[in-house]
Amino acid sequence: MLTFLNPASDALGAGWNISQAEIAIGSGGFAGKGFGQGTQSQLNFLPEKQTDFIYTTLGEEFGFVGSAGLLILFAVVIGFGIRIAMASRSQFGRLVAMGLTLNFFFYIMINAAMVMGLMPVVGIPMPLVSYGGTAMLTVMFGFGLLMSVHVHRQVEIPRHSAGLI
Length: 165
Known about the structure:
Elements lengths: L1 H4 L10 H13 L10 H4 L11 H34 L3 H25 L18 H18 L14
């Protein structure tokens, strides 16, 4: 917790990860340095740049524009998840879809806040972007369940076509 509150107090030890991540994001500026041109990521100053700190690499190489663009794309996916949840006529489908959408949102929020120094480093990868095994598998499994909720939403049958007239 002390390193989270003041990463500069142990910049060469426990605070190394977050210090290098903040330098990388800050050095990206508005438009970034270009694909493959990030100094922090290419010179191996960033730990786990392909998994937990991929958002930092993206921020350094593509800048604010690339980082915001990725977050906008994630917001679109989250919006579709909420739309699927609201379209489900069963309570179970609504809860499953909203829970999976919130899980996806928390993956994104925790990773982005972690690499920006707003939260402690916990090791959660950025979904759909990070090189991953288990996290990618669980996100894809969740998307499969979300699509199942969308496909199996109950459609209301009008009374006159159900033979009730």
